[in-house]
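Q: Please design a sequence for this.
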């Protein structure tokens, strides 16, 4: 593995690069580092040049304090900068969790840099011209919802900081397919403290997350703090204005979707299955793969099935 350092204006971006061949960029989500793609990097790097990114706000990349530096527009610019550093041609972008919207937006805003998109866990939804946080504020009236908690300045940082590794493990477990349904979206009052709402994780390593990976994530946040990670949620309030020029835009590049059948994201809009038609706003959608038993961390919980779906998509490009 080589380390690639890319400058995008005043932002420094760190990526882990492995292999040779057509370029692929892997974009992690909350609260993951580049190493969350370890299973895909190992699988793909014998045929592709794979760059796994530390997203702005994480790991070895810059952690600006301002919320406005974390809009999807800015983060898509980071992906384009890394794509340019990898070579002249366009890249395939894989994105998970917040990395998926970053990947979708990179395709729209930088079509010359993005050849195709694989979205994991979060299907593409065109910008609506309204704040995502306002939507959830209305959908979860007087009820607890984690995004509305994450947006509160300093509050999640303090709560997580009391036992950072333990808090992260609790979140990883609650979002996984091993947790009981509803673990991540409990029915509780809006002002309830978050972490006690989540189920206790099992003793020992989680089935999909080695202890050394959890230790790596916790150590990284001990160094950088978690404000950068939570600022992406806070910046969701700014995306409506920032994305005013692409309201209703569709993804024109070849695209596919991979999700875990037990992912809480699937039911995040009450009464709606977000995985029912994940290609509705993609012009060249090549299909979806919904993996039984897997939760939110589909590329880690079901690495072989995820890799097979990625292989099939790449082979058909």
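A: Design:
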């Amino acid at each position: 593995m080589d380390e690639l350092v890319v400058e995008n204006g005043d932002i420094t971006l760190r990526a882990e690069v492995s292999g040779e061949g057509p370029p692929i960029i892997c974009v992690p989500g909350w609260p993951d580092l580049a190493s969350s793609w370890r299973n895909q990097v190992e699988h793909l790097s014998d045929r592709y040049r794979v760059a796994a990114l530390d997203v702005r706000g994480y790991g070895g990349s810059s952690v600006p304090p301002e919320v406005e530096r974390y809009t999807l527009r800015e983060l898509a610019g980071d992906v384009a900068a890394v794509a340019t550093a990898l070579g002249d041609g366009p890249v395939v972008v894989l994105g998970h969790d917040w990395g998926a919207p970053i990947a979708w937006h990179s395709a729209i805003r930088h079509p010359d840099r993005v050849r195709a998109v694989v979205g994991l866990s979060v299907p593409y939804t065109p910008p609506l011209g309204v704040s995502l946080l306002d939507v959830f504020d209305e959908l979860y009236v007087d009820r607890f919802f984690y995004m509305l908690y994450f947006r509160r300045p300093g509050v999640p940082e303090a709560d997580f900081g009391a036992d950072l590794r333990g808090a992260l493990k609790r979140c990883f477990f609650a979002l996984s397919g091993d947790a009981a349904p509803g673990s991540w979206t409990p029915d509780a009052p809006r002002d309830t403290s978050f972490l006690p709402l989540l189920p206790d994780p099992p003793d020992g390593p989680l089935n999909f997350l080695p202890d050394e990976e959890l230790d790596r994530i916790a150590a990284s946040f001990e160094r950088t703090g978690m404000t950068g990670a939570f600022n992406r949620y806070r910046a969701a309030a700014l995306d409506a204005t920032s994305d005013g020029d692409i309201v209703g835009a569709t993804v024109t590049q070849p695209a596919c979707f991979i999700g875990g059948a037990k992912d809480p994201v699937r039911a995040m809009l009450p009464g709606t299955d977000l995985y029912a038609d994940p290609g509705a706003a993609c012009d060249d959608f090549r299909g979806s793969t919904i993996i039984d038993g897997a939760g939110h961390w589909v590329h880690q919980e079901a690495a072989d099935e995820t890799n097979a779906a990625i292989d099939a998509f790449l082979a058909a490009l």
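Q: Thanks. Anything notable?
A: The mean pLDDT is 97. The two ends are 26 Å apart (CA to CA).
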